[in-house]
Specification:
By secondary structure, the chain is of the alpha+beta class. The chain has one domain. Helices cover about 20% and strands about 45% of the residues. The protein contains three helices and eight strands. The longest helix has 9 residues.
Length: about 130
């Protein structure tokens, strides 16, 4: 639990666009995860990773709302709509299962619609980090 809290307090996820890059500062890297600071939300930290298929995952801490958020997306997911709610189930190694409502959202000038959950639980965060 301490590891999850420490990670949440330190950092969380980013999107690879010029608008976002201007509003973020590089902090470091842990494994394949890039760690940045988001100046648009009170210098909140986030970690993000992009994958070969273009998918992106961003996990971050918003100090203004004191919440952990989770974004994922891919430019090829054309059916996603900004503002629409999506019921999603995450299952980690057939052990931990989380049902949640994510909302389609854009970030900065990015036209890609990402799935966003702006208040994920500490339990979800820990399960995500352990896998």
């Amino acid at each position: 639990m301490f590891r999850a809290l420490a990670f949440a307090a330190l950092c969380w996820s980013a999107l690879a666009t010029s608008a976002v890059a201007q509003n973020t500062a590089e902090w470091g890297q842990v494994g394949g995860w890039k760690i940045r600071v988001d100046r648009t939300i009170g210098n909140g930290c986030f970690a993000y990773q992009t994958y070969q298929d273009g998918s992106l995952i961003r996990l971050g801490f918003n100090p203004e709302s004191k919440t952990i958020y989770f974004l994922l997306g891919n430019a090829s997911w054309q059916s996603l709509e900004a503002g629409k709610k999506y019921q999603i189930t995450f299952e980690f190694d057939s052990v931990d299962r989380y049902d949640g409502e994510l909302v389609g959202t854009t970030v900065g000038d990015n036209k890609t619609v990402f799935l966003d959950h702006n208040n994920v639980s500490l339990q979800f965060t820990e399960a995500f980090m352990q896998r």
